[in-house]
Design brief:
mainly beta, 5 helices, disordered N terminus, six-stranded mixed beta sheet
């Protein structure tokens, strides 16, 4: 276990701003030292537009995180429209610092789109209205008394761009974009005040009209607001800023609904212990009153080394944070795994770490932004990575373009920033050595309009539907992939139902059959795309053919039904039946899985994660001797982070615990509740002495590990089938004229069900089947 600090809300009382007092000591050392250490020369190449850019990429199938690098820029579900190397920008030849930095975007009142890219010698402006034919308009240079810089950041409010540098001599460059459609971009002034000369990052909140300068030589290297009203060409420091600690990056958001309506909230990413000696990384500050900011919380998290940057979801529920130095293997010779953290920010005074995610590549994660259901993250040496947030606690990487194909090293080279907010889908990527890339997604979104069936009626085909949405891609083919009883897979067609919906049918099967299926789509641009995504890892939708279901045992843990806990060398975090605590530590469940209130969790309080172990949760004895098709489902939660991650192991015994068979052993990068299940007979013979156990440990004690179990249910499939009850009606009289109509329909459709006499001689369906059906109808149902 590790202890992580969360401060109570407090008001920061600082005297009104005196501009001269803002000048301070140089900003604390940060990740920029790494960029200097790893600096590489620029890549010289001609501009690539349209078809020339296309030739530089190889599309990789949607089946894994990487693929063959037989092109300049490997891509997956992305299309490169153009590439503007650094050398194509004016002023490159005379620059002493030939590098790219961050980027942003601007849309003029006419709807034309422009890229703004930080360069070592100034700020580049490029029209990207036609992403395949970008036009470089100009570079606004740094003043002659300023240093060329490796770091340059730019943002926009209204028709003004504001550019800053981390080197002395710039202040804020105010750039007028009002005539950009005519090709005219004007530097209004290089604006300094109160000794301000350099800034690491400049952020904007157009909703409030404020700029925010972070990590500079003012406000103690913290975060200082600058008003763009009444004169946007003279942004003026307003209030003392938030100066409790160094701030590297931030996102500032105006809340318009909910408990924080009317508040302007800053999510400040305040580095961490690696460079600054600080014990916290994330700070959330109510910056509504610029004269007296209210610090809502300061939070550390397991594995904190350099809390770099983050972005919230559009519903303001989750915050995604990247840490540039958190890889467990950094410096140890092992392959690093850089984690992004997911915080639940429903309560801004007490955010909770609820999940993490990683693609297990050694590249360092950097600037990230959320637009709609996607997270766009620049990952230095592996380029732009795009994550689907359909399941917000379980992001899935779905696309990328690798702008640095030489290697995937743990170094500070390659993709720095990105801008995904253009409405036409154009995406900007800035690269330290290669300049500006302009790309778009080319993928298909596969969504379930309703839950897919998991119980199937015997002898009948079962309809299924899927919604397909093109995201820069066009559907080519869509198939339903079906396997019955572990046999050979079948590929069945899907047909359009209109409005993006497609329909298909699962085949008629015999009661007791086990059916697994998934959907596979191919676009005209590539693929395949599958739903559910886990099908690629051998976990499709699993269904059972049955006439009914008997619940043999169900436990929502509201009362004690006989579960026991066995602990071995556990010093903290033993299994406990409880309502998850509102003060639970990082990684602990926020609530139970089924909404009933209670569940089993490992400890139930701040810093009550598992230490030592294992701690074992043991079920009561289950009599499954009369249930050969018994099936167990349960919900599980596991989040294990920091050093060597731990596992939650599910085992089953048929001899009252004398011997055990492992069913599931999961070590997820992600958290959140997940419902899973299994067929008992796939692991043991169902007996009268069945037990299930859940085991988790942190041994050696070097991680923060939290687990939960809920909604444990044992069912048995029923196969009480009456052939003559063709329509399946259970309303008296169960057998009636509707069954004749049903049989005729299924006979006309040549369904296997209609072969009542079981004949294998052609024609298989004939008058004998009618006679057979009449006999069974006359015999009635039991």
């Amino acid at each position: 276990m590790r202890s992580w600090r969360s401060l109570r809300p407090r008001v920061v009382h600082i005297t009104p701003l005196v501009l001269a007092s803002l000048a301070g000591a140089p900003a604390a050392a940060d990740d920029d030292d790494q960029k200097l250490r790893d600096r590489k020369p620029p890549i010289i190449a001609p501009i690539a537009r349209g078809p020339d850019a296309w030739k530089l990429t190889t599309r990789l199938p949607d089946i894994g995180p990487s693929g063959p690098m037989d092109s300049t820029f490997p891509t997956r579900n992305m299309e490169l429209h153009s590439w503007l190397p650094l050398s194509s920008f004016p002023g490159y030849a005379g620059a002493t610092q030939k590098s790219g930095a961050d980027c942003w975007g601007y849309v003029s009142p006419s709807g034309r789109r422009y890229a703004l890219i930080g360069l070592g010698w100034g700020t580049g402006v490029v029209e990207v209205t036609d992403p395949a034919n970008p036009v470089i308009l100009t570079v606004i240079p740094v003043p002659s008394n300023a240093y060329n810089s490796l770091w340059r950041d730019v943002t926009v409010i209204g028709h003004y761009a504001y550019s800053v540098s981390d080197n002395v001599g710039v202040g804020i460059q105010v750039i007028d974009l009002s005539d950009v459609d005519t090709g005219t971009v004007t530097l209004v002034r290089n604006h300094s005040q109160g000794g301000h000369s350099r800034t690491h990052t400049i952020l904007s909140n157009p909703a409030s009209g404020y700029l925010y300068l972070c990590g500079g030589n003012v406000a103690g290297s913290g975060m200082v607001p600058a008003a763009t009203a009444p004169d946007p060409t003279l942004p003026t420091f307003d209030g003392p800023g938030w100066r409790d600690q160094y701030v590297h990056e931030a996102q500032i958001v105006s809340y318009t609904s909910g408990p924080y309506a009317g508040k302007e909230i800053a999510f400040a990413f305040a580095a961490g212990p690696y460079y600054t000696g600080l014990t916290t990384g994330l700070a959330i500050v109510d910056i509504t009153n610029k004269a007296a900011p209210i610090e809502l919380c300061q939070i550390a998290y397991p594995g904190l080394r350099f809390c770099h940057q983050g972005w919230i979801t559009e519903d303001k529920r989750y915050l995604y944070i990247n840490d540039e130095l958190d890889a467990p293997g950094s410096g140890s010779g092992s392959v690093p795994r850089f984690l992004a953290r997911i915080f639940d920010i429903s309560n801004l005074s007490s955010p909770r770490l609820v999940s993490t995610f990683s693609n297990n590549l050694p590249s360092v994660d950097h600037n990230e932004y959320v637009k709609g259901r996607y997270l766009y993250m620049s990952n230095y040496t592996t380029g732009l990575r795009v994550w689907d947030l359909k399941e917000p606690l379980r992001p899935r990487e779905v696309a990328y373009i690798d702008t640095r194909p030489e290697d995937d090293a743990t170094s500070y080279n390659g993709a720095w920033g990105n801008y995904p907010f253009f409405d036409d889908g154009t995406i900007l990527v800035s690269d330290l050595e290669r300049g500006l890339f302009i790309a778009r997604l080319t993928l298909l979104e596969l969504d379930d309009p309703a839950p897919q069936p998991r119980t199937l009626e015997p002898g009948k085909r079962t309809p299924v539907t899927l919604r397909v949405t093109g995201k820069g891609a066009t559907l080519g083919t869509l198939t339903l992939m079906v396997t019955v009883n572990d046999g050979l897979p079948q590929s069945l067609p899907m047909v359009s139902l209109g409005d993006g919906l497609y329909g298909g049918e699962l085949p008629a099967c015999t009661c007791g059959d086990r059916v697994s299926y998934y959907f596979q789509a191919v676009s005209t641009e590539g693929g395949p795309f599958v739903s559910p995504p886990a099908a690629l890892n051998g976990d499709p939708i699993r269904a059972r053919v049955q006439t009914g279901e008997t619940v043999l045992f169900a436990d929502d843990f509201q009362i004690n039904l006989g579960w026991t806990v066995q602990n071995t060398a556990v010093t903290s975090g033993a299994w406990a039946r409880a309502v998850p605590s509102a003060t639970g530590g990082h990684g602990a469940p926020l609530a139970d899985a089924d909404g009933s209130g209670m569940c089993f969790v490992t400890g139930n309080g701040t810093n009550a994660d598992v230490d030592g172990g294992p701690t074992v949760l043991l079920s009561p004895v289950l009599d499954l001797s009369a249930a050969p098709e018994a099936h167990i489902t349960y919900s599980r939660w596991l989040l294990s982070i920091q050093s060597a991650t731990d596992s939650l192991i599910t085992s089953i015994s048929g001899d009252d615990g004398q011997s055990w068979t492992t069913v599931h052993s999961v070590t997820p990068v992600t958290g959140g509740w997940e419902t899973v299940g299994f067929r008992v007979a796939d692991y043991i013979t169902p007996t009268s002495q069945v037990r299930v156990r859940f085991s988790v440990s942190d041994n050696p004690d070097n991680s923060v590990t939290e687990a939960g179990i809920d909604a444990f249910v044992v069912t048995s499939a029923a196969c009480e089938f009456c052939y003559a009850n063709c329509d399946g009606s259970l309303v008296a009289p169960a057998l009636n004229v509707a069954d004749f109509s049903c049989f005729l329909t299924r006979f006309a459709a040549a369904e296997p069900y209609a072969n009542c006499d079981g004949s294998t001689m052609a024609p298989i369906l004939n008058v004998a089947d009618f006679s057979c059906f009449l006999d069974r109808f006359a015999s009635g149902c039991p």
